């Protein structure tokens, strides 16, 4: 890093009885009070270079021999004042990126301009700043960081804005054209030599995103301004912007690299001097700023990273606009997600609330299905209050993102992948006893019918939901099962469904019907159905001469949720599980299926012989299936 030395005399400042003074044969005639520290100095060297001190001394009514000057609001404190005082005495001072902001602010405060004396401190500092600080990469970053101590002075002196412009211009250049610090240059050389392969890899390691790690040292407000300047240059690929944001989030968002659900706990444990709410507010501002910097292009950041931000936003109670924007971006690349990504824990402590944020996932799914459609004329983000001051270029980000969504469209293969993802997600959230039936059905129905080649995973989710919600009424179970297409169930799923005591009878009947039709078709011809099945179908309003329409138009699995038919294949298990008999007896009293006044007049039910007939019907059905399979 660059530095500049001014003056040639040795330092003779010393402290005596809590008073700072300078060794001199001439007695002091000026007392300056700077933030609790008293200085015994001399008028001549100070007043000859400081216009402010000249004016204050001329206005003072104190004795000319010991005038007292109060400087309570001196920028930079006693360290900055001593730099200026030593410069006036000709004592050697060293200036660098670490103290130039304080020194420049102090010199401005004391009015050490060229009008007072040629070659004054302000002039020398400006030359050093323009020729050395702004030309150095690390110098510019360090100087920008120090502006946090004096934000108002830095803005008035345009130090912050000029540093940001210099950093942005260098980030858009190849590092070979940038004056890097010795340590940073050595790090780049090590990165290149570690590959020790082709020139393309060397070029990649030194030319793409080389600046992201250094910028991650900035505080969020300075980082936001710097990234906006880099983005406005229009030369940085969106994926590099995304990588830089990921690096910054990993450094500053608590524990995002490990488990984002520990954010709240960590912020509370780390709040020694500040309250937990203040720490959460700081992290919330940081997260919302990162969200506002996300590139509009699809795929600029990974889906996994977006989900981590979304989970953090949920825990930190970020603004609704940030959540909606993240959910929309996730929806554009939902096919990249995993079940664990979708499992967004609820932060509510109420025992009646859901375990997972299902509504948020519903929003994501809706955004996924909206791809290729025109966005609303007034995007949700523009209607919501944005808590952060944003530049004009930042306001255009949402419009660019909406245009990106309109130009993209979910492919057929991505919808097939999302359908599998949603069904496995439903298997996980189905265990939540507080998950409403309407929400379960709504999520399942967001997937178009063509996207599900089979309904085995959906059936598994329904089975888990029925087990976790035994209090469901018969009508609710029927409503749930309407989303299931029995024609898309595998043989194994059909055999399990036919013996599932939790399913409504109508579903069991349809499973039997389609399995019989499938077995007959596999044998090369469609045989007539047994009379007892015909009677059962007719009694429930199903025409056995026609194919029944489907009932719908629309991770890891725990060991006890896996279903198989191994327990249903032996005759003994069939005897112990008179499922259909129970279903028929139960539904005979269901007026929604067969009115009570029709029960006594329906001879078909008498002909079925409920105590014994179901067993014979299952035996005949499975025998037909086996014979059809053997023919193949």
UniProtKB/TrEMBL annotation:
<dbReference type="InterPro" id="IPR011333">
    <property type="entry name" value="SKP1/BTB/POZ_sf"/>
</dbReference>
<feature type="domain" description="NPH3">
    <location>
        <begin position="209"/>
        <end position="518"/>
    </location>
</feature>
<keyword id="KW-0833">Ubl conjugation pathway</keyword>
<comment type="pathway">
    <text>Protein modification; protein ubiquitination.</text>
</comment>
<dbReference type="InterPro" id="IPR027356">
    <property type="entry name" value="NPH3_dom"/>
</dbReference>
<protein>
    <submittedName>
        <fullName>BTB/POZ domain-containing protein</fullName>
    </submittedName>
</protein>
<dbReference type="InterPro" id="IPR043454">
    <property type="entry name" value="NPH3/RPT2-like"/>
</dbReference>
<comment type="similarity">
    <text>Belongs to the NPH3 family.</text>
</comment>
<dbReference type="GO" id="GO:0016567">
    <property type="term" value="P:protein ubiquitination"/>
</dbReference>
<dbReference type="Pfam" id="PF03000">
    <property type="entry name" value="NPH3"/>
</dbReference>
């Amino acid at each position: 890093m660059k530095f500049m030395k001014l003056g040639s005399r040795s330092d003779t400042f010393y402290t005596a009885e809590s008073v700072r003074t300078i060794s001199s044969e001439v007695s002091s005639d000026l007392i300056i009070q700077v933030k609790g520290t008293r200085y015994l100095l001399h008028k001549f060297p100070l007043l000859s270079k400081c216009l402010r001190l000249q004016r204050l001394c001329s206005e003072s009514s104190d004795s000319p021999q010991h005038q007292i000057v109060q400087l309570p609001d001196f920028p930079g404190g006693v360290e900055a004042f001593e730099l200026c005082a030593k410069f006036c005495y000709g004592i050697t001072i060293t200036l660098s990126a670490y103290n130039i902001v304080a020194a420049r602010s102090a010199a401005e405060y004391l009015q050490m301009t060229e009008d007072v004396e040629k070659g004054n401190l302000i002039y020398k500092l400006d030359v050093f700043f323009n020729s050395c600080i702004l030309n150095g990469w690390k110098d510019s970053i360090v100087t920008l960081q120090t502006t946090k101590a004096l934000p108002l002075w830095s803005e008035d002196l345009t130090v912050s804005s000029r540093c940001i412009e210099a950093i942005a211009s260098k980030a858009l250049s190849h590092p070979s054209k940038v004056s890097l610090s010795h340590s940073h240059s050595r790090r780049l050389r090590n990165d290149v030599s570690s590959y020790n392969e082709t020139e393309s890899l060397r070029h990649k390691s030194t030319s793409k995103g080389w600046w992201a790690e250094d910028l991650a040292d900035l505080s969020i407000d300075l980082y936001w301004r710097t990234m906006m300047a880099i983005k406005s240059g229009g030369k940085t690929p969106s994926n590099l912007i995304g990588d830089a944001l990921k690096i910054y989030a990993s450094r500053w968002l608590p524990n995002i690299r490990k488990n984002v659900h520990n954010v709240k706990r960590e912020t509370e444990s780390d709040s020694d001097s500040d309250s937990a709410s203040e720490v959460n507010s700081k992290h919330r501002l940081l997260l919302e700023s990162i969200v506002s910097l996300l590139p509009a292009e699809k795929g600029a950041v990974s889906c996994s990273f977006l989900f981590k931000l979304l989970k953090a936003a949920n825990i930190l109670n970020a603004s609704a606009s940030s959540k909606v924007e993240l959910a929309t971006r996730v929806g554009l690349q939902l096919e990249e997600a995993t079940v664990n990504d979708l499992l967004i824990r609820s932060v509510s402590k109420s025992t009646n609330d859901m375990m997972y944020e299902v509504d948020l996932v519903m929003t994501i799914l809706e955004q996924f299905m909206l791809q290729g459609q025109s966005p609303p004329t007034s995007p949700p983000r523009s209607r919501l209050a944005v808590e952060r001051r944003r530049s004009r270029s930042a306001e255009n980000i949402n419009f660019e993102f909406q245009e990106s969504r309109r130009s993209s469209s979910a492919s057929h293969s991505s919808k097939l992948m999302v359908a599998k993802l949603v069904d496995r997600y439903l298997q996980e959230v189905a265990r939540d006893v507080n998950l409403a039936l309407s929400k379960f059905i709504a999520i399942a129905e967001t997937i178009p019918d063509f996207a599900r080649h089979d309904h085995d995973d959906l059936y598994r989710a329904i089975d888990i939901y029925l087990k976790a919600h035994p209090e469901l009424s018969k009508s609710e179970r029927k409503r749930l099962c309407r989303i299931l297409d029995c024609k898309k169930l595998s043989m194994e799923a059909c055999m399990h469904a036919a013996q599932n005591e939790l399913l409504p009878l109508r579903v069991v009947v349809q499973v039997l019907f389609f399995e019989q039709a499938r077995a007959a078709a596999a044998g090369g011809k469609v045989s007539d159905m047994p009379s007892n099945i015909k009677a059962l179908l007719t009694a429930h309003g199903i025409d056995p001469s026609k194919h029944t329409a489907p009932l719908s138009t629309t991770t890891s699995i725990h060991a006890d949720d896996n279903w198989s038919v191994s327990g249903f294949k032996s005759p003994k298990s069939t005897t112990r599980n008179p499922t259909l008999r129970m279903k028929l007896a139960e539904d005979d009293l269901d007026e929604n299926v067969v009115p009570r006044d029709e029960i006594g007049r329906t001879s078909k039910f008498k002909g079925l012989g409920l105590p014994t007939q179901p067993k014979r019907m299952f035996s005949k059905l499975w025998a037909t299936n086996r014979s059809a399979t053997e023919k193949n």
